[in-house]
Amino acid sequence: MRSPSSLRARLSLGIVLVAATALASCSSDGSSTTAAETLPLSTLPATVASTTPPASTEAPTTSPPAPVATYPLTGLPVTDEAAAARPAMIAKVGNYDSYPQTGLNAADIVYEELINDHISRFAIVYQSQAPKDLVGPIRSGRRQDVDLLTNLNHPVLAWAGGNAFVTQDIADSELVNMSQTYCNKACMRVDFTKAPYNLYFDITKAWEKMPEGGKTPPQQFQFRTTGAALAGSAATGVDMTIDSYKISWTWNDSTKRYERMQNKKPDTERNGDLVTTENVLILKMVYKFSVGSPAAQSVGNGEAFLFTGGNMVHGTWSRANNHDVYTLTADDGSTFLLTPGRTFVELPRKEDVITPK
């Protein structure tokens, strides 16, 4: 037979355990209890009391900052959401020493392509901003414009029109036709120069009056982050030829831009401003004749040069189809990284001479 003292000890321990179980049950099902149904924590056995978790001393976690929205064609931070969403507007502008152009310095991207008569023409791409002045002289398009510009995702083409073959190519393409026939009073003949160099576009009005179908362009290039080291080797600029044109770009470390010379003279717009850019991208092209004009074969691959931030990177470009953006690969296998800002894309012949400075 057990002794009375032994029974009393076991009874006391049972009361403690029942009380602890009741406390846990009330905590888990959220039911209310009275003070008589609970026991102070200090009366529980030491092994139970020690299971209470200590207060956390870890600092609260913070979410990383949201990425900054950038314009697709410049990589610069968005300051106008409506502008960032609108389609690219492309003006086909003649390149003549005697009839200086307007609008290059306000463009996100400028393509310089060869046309007939051994001269070049600009495809000036606007999206993040509109030039304050009328843009021109607006000239005709070429068949090569379809492959060159389709990757801008249904861009609007502000042009003077073209021959029957080119006009049909544009009509059959994804480019939105806004020739002088369809400019809806966004283009005009000016009186400060003679025909055929007197057709000009108001780009702001062109966005207001454009035909339906344009879409926001995708990002065309990869950009380096602020403060990131430049790739490549130091170069003060580049001298090059595009058929009969002698072109020179020189880095200005004070303005952080490249300055353009054409045929040994500073290349200035009609208002006297020197033509400048943050990036000079040279994509050597094979040209084949099409309806009497050379046509850049911009689907395929070729040699590439990038001049940015006072450095030069050499490599290759490639595109599998005209919807693709250019894949730009340096000789070391890395991707070309441009400086956020404007880009001037030169499209010389494969045989033309490129001389880094």
Question: How does this structure look, described?
Answer:
This protein has helices spanning 4-29, 46-49, 81-85, 144-149, 164-172, 203-209, and strands at residues 89-94, 109-114, 120-126, 156-159, 176-179, 187-189, 199-201, 233-234, 237-242, 245-252, 257-262, 265-266, 276-277, 279-283, 287-290, 293-296, 300-308, 311-319, 327-330, 343-346, 354-356. It is α+β, with helices and mostly antiparallel strands. The strands form four sheets. Strands 1, 2, 3, 4, 5, 8, 14, 17, 18, 19 and 20 form an eleven-stranded mixed sheet that branches. The radius of gyration is 34 Å and the shape is globular. The relative contact order is 0.14.
Q: What count of domains describes the coordinates?
A: 2
Number of separate helices: 6
- What structural class results from the helix and strand content? alpha+beta
The CATH architecture category of the largest domain equals: 3-Layer(bba) Sandwich
Roughly what fraction of the amino acids lie in strands?
Answer: 25-35%
Order of helices and strands: HHHEEEHEHEEEHEEEEEEEEEEEEEE
Low-confidence stretches: 1-53
Distance between the termini: 109 Å
Shape: globular
DSSP E strands, number: 21
